[in-house]
Specification:
With 267 residues, this protein is an alpha/beta fold. The chain contains 12 helices and 10 strands. It has a single domain, classed as Alkaline Phosphatase, subunit A (3-Layer(aba) Sandwich), CATH 3.40.720.10. Helices cover 41% and strands 19% of the residues. Strands 1-3-10-7-2-6-4-5 form an 8-stranded mixed sheet, with helices on both faces. Strands 8-9 form a two-stranded antiparallel ribbon. A hairpin with a 4-residue loop joins β8 and β9.
Length: 267
């Protein structure tokens, strides 16, 4: 007997879900709805971290989840599928995560753009809290999210290990109520090799170890954790561009991403 397919929600539902979990107002331009399963599963939390393995879509996850035992164990407990908004590219969908609306609503098409609507950063700040946006220099996590958050976690031209270190440093120091971070090198590897290539496996194993470390350390700091991607990938062969994976279309490979969560241990 086949297991039931996970329910599919929209990326516009992420911001209302985070608001409900943190007990805050929804960004004023949000058009989505809180995802009841996530809100119930996490409960009310004082601090929330969103960690995004960039580009880890449902297609790659279905092929390679055995290489990510920690993340697979989380999905065995709680699992949903999220559909990216169009275009299925990083700045647009990160902007949707923190606003609850699509590109027409938030005005972001590249990480150099400014938001044209209220964000979760604004909501948290208005409630007297702090937020953090974390990523590598030249990536959306830093150039867009960090620019609008209270704590700008610019990790320079480093690696996803540097992202992990910065998340933990900020969470243990400034203790922002809302943290969102981009593991950007995941996407780079999918572009380089394509989501169906076994060459992505070493990266996925390393990403799984990073997620395990983050989950353990953030739990000690009292954070709930949401793990999802911003978009997926489909395989291509573009020798002139040096690409074997790409995204941006409305295909399931580009739009459908796995989502899971972990509530903090009561203390």
């Amino acid at each position: 007997m086949n297991a039931p397919s996970p329910q599919v929600h929209s990326m516009i539902d992420i911001a209302p879900t985070l608001s409900a979990t943190l007990g805050l107002a929804v960004p004023s331009g949000a058009t989505g709805d809180a995802i009841a399963a996530v809100v119930t599963g996490l409960g009310r939390v004082a601090r929330m971290a969103v960690v995004v393995p960039d580009g880890l879509g449902l297609h790659a996850w279905s092929l390679w989840q055995a290489e990510m035992p920690f993340l697979r164990a989380l999905h065995a407990k709680h699992s949903l599928v999220i559909s990216s908004v169009m275009p299925s590219i990083t700045p647009v969908n990160f902007a949707t995560m923190v606003t609850g609306t699509d590109a027409a609503g938030h005005g972001v098409g590249s990480f150099n753009d400014d938001f044209t609507c209220e964000t979760l950063f604004d909501v948290v700040r208005r409630a007297g809290g702090k937020s953090a946006g974390i990523g590598l220099e030249g990536y959306t996590g830093s150039e867009l999210l960090g620019r609008f958050a209270d704590v700008w976690g610019n990790c320079g031209h480093g690696s996803d290990d540097d992202i992990v270190d910065t998340i933990l440093e900020i969470a243990g120091g400034a203790k922002p109520e809302f943290v969102i971070a981009q593991l950007g090198k995941v996407d780079d590897v999918f572009h380089q090799h394509g989501p169906s290539s076994a060459s992505v496996v070493p990266m996925l194993r390393a990403t799984d170890r990073r997620l395990k470390l983050l989950a353990e350390r953030l739990d000690l700091l009292g954070y709930g954790l949401l793990v999802l991607a911003d978009h997926g990938h489909h395989d291509v062969d573009e020798p002139s561009l040096g690409l074997k994976g790409t995204h941006g279309t409305d295909s399931p490979g580009d739009c459908l991403v796995p989502c899971t969560w972990l509530s903090p241990t009561p203390r």
